[in-house]
């Protein structure tokens, strides 16, 4: 799990007045640190990575270091060295907080001016397809729509991070267990793998998409030893979300949620992290960690032979009459439900299918089976949505869930559905069968 704090301060700032600031109201840093300490391991014991994106002088960095050390105490992880050649496993870092860095202070004025230009340009952006009540259909992991000013913004809007400078106070320097590299030169320079040290780089979504156009295998090779953090482009001021599959399919370990609205991209994130007991960490498949014959690196764009076929049978659904009012879907008649079943994963595997509509029935029975050939089942998520057909208006939402294919087990299952926000319904379930052939 990862949390990013943007820390700003002026020359009059004292220890208690260092702020975590984004485009929302500022919050005092000590309040953020206390909240992190209180809730960091409530849901999971696995480590929390704290990215400090600071715009501070060395003197204020020393004050921040003191606050962090006093707040976290023994929970704080120290690497014990300026450089490490391999990251420890999450299992060995349970109940530890790990600090990572940080844009350099000399980029503060430049970044602020770019933020202003970006905000002014983003007003002209078109409404995002994610404003649709159910979000956009997910077929290709890379979004196709582009705003008019996006390419220009991608060149100018920069949040690059770099390693701590030599003049940074020692106390602050010692906090940093995950070093970050400043982006210099071209894509191949960003993705240079130093065998003597591991590090992290951060790419906004559009930079990642441009990098994988011609350097997909270089991105994956880099993430075999190093960390890649992906975050939304700064022009997403229209409450739209980006597709996390782009990062996951190319080995990125830290795909920032930063979700602003509910919809299918958020459901994918919720589905992915239902794996591994919901602890917040999901192991990357071996195909992203190990090379094939002749040192070949996996490339999500290259079609592969079908590895296995998932057969999904939808028998029936029940529970809506318990969780919804009788007039929720139709005032004068029972609902007309249908199910959408599909795969989100690499482009070759991504597809969506639909059952027939069962009219006027609170307990619909479909008895329909679908087959999904999978070339990369390790990266596939099973998408399930129920909608209520409406002849005159937009179909009503009846429930959804997203499940990691690699954790599905053969057999008949009662599959709980969730609401639009991702909260599980008390009673609504689908009776389904999963089978791999």
From TrEMBL:
Compositional bias of kind Basic and acidic residues: 107-129
Gene Ontology biological process terms from the UniProt entry: lipid catabolic process; phosphatidylinositol-mediated signaling; release of sequestered calcium ion into cytosol; response to stress
Protein name: Phosphoinositide phospholipase C
Limits of the PI-PLC Y-box domain: 202-288
Organism: Lactuca saligna
Domain C2, chain residue ranges per copy: 289-419
Example of a GO MF term: phosphatidylinositol-4,5-bisphosphate phospholipase C activity
EC numbers, comma separated: 3.1.4.11
Bilayer disposition of the protein: Peripheral membrane protein
Known cofactor(s): Ca(2+)
Region (Disordered): 107-130
Catalytic reaction(s) noted: a 1,2-diacyl-sn-glycero-3-phospho-(1D-myo-inositol-4,5-bisphosphate) + H2O = 1D-myo-inositol 1,4,5-trisphosphate + a 1,2-diacyl-sn-glycerol + H(+)
Top-rank taxon: Eukaryota
GO CC annotations on file: plasma membrane
Subcellular locations according to the entry: Cell membrane
Keywords, alphabetical: Cell membrane, Hydrolase, Lipid degradation, Lipid metabolism, Membrane, Transducer
Pfam families linked to this entry: C2, PI-PLC-X, PI-PLC-Y
């Amino acid at each position: 799990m990862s949390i990013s704090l943007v820390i700003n301060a002026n020359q009059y700032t004292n220890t208690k007045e260092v702020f975590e600031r984004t485009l929302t109201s500022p919050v005092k840093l000590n309040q953020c640190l206390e909240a992190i300490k209180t809730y960091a391991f409530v849901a999971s014991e696995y480590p929390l990575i704290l990215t400090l994106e600071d715009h501070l002088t060395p003197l204020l960095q020393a004050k921040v270091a003191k606050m962090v050390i006093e707040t976290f105490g023994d929970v704080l992880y120290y690497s014990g060295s300026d450089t490490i050649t391999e990251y420890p496993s999450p299992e060995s870092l349970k109940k530890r907080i790990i600090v990572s860095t940080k844009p350099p202070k000399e980029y503060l004025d430049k970044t602020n001016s770019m933020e202003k230009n970006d905000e002014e340009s983003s007003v002209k952006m078109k409404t995002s397809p994610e404003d649709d009540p159910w979000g956009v259909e997910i077929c290709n992991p890379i979004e196709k729509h582009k705003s008019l000013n996006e390419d220009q913004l991608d060149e100018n809007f920069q949040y690059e991070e770099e390693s701590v400078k030599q003049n940074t106070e020692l106390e602050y320097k010692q906090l940093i267990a995950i070093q970050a590299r400043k982006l210099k030169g071209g894509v191949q320079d960003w993705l240079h793998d130093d065998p003597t040290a591991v590090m992290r780089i951060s790419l906004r979504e559009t930079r990642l998409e441009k990098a994988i156009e011609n350097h997909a295998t270089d991105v994956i090779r880099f993430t075999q030893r190093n960390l890649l953090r992906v975050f939304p482009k700064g022009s997403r001021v229209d409450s739209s979300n980006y597709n996390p599959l782009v990062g996951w399919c190319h080995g990125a370990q830290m795909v920032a949620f930063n979700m602003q609205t509910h919809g299918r991209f958020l459901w994918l994130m919720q589905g992915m992290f239902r794996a591994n007991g919901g602890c917040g960490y999901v192991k990357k498949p071996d195909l992203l960690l190990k090379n094939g014959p002749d040192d070949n690196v996996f490339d999500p764009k290259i079609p592969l032979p079908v590895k296995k076929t998932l057969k999904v049978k939808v028998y029936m659904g029940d529970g809506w009459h318990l969780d919804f009012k009788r007039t929720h879907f139709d005032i004068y008649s029972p609902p007309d439900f249908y199910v959408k079943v599909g795969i989100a994963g690499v482009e070759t595997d991504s597809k969506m299918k639909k059952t027939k509509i069962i009219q006027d029935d609170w307990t619909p029975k479909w008895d329909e089976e679908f087959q999904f050939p999978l070339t990369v089942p390790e990266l596939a998520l099973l998408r399930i949505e129920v909608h209520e057909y409406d002849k005159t208006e937009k179909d009503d939402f009846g429930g959804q869930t997203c499940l990691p294919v690699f954790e599905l087990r053969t057999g008949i299952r009662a599959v709980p559905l969730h609401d639009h926000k991702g909260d599980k319904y008390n009673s609504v379930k689908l009776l389904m069968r999963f089978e791999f052939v």
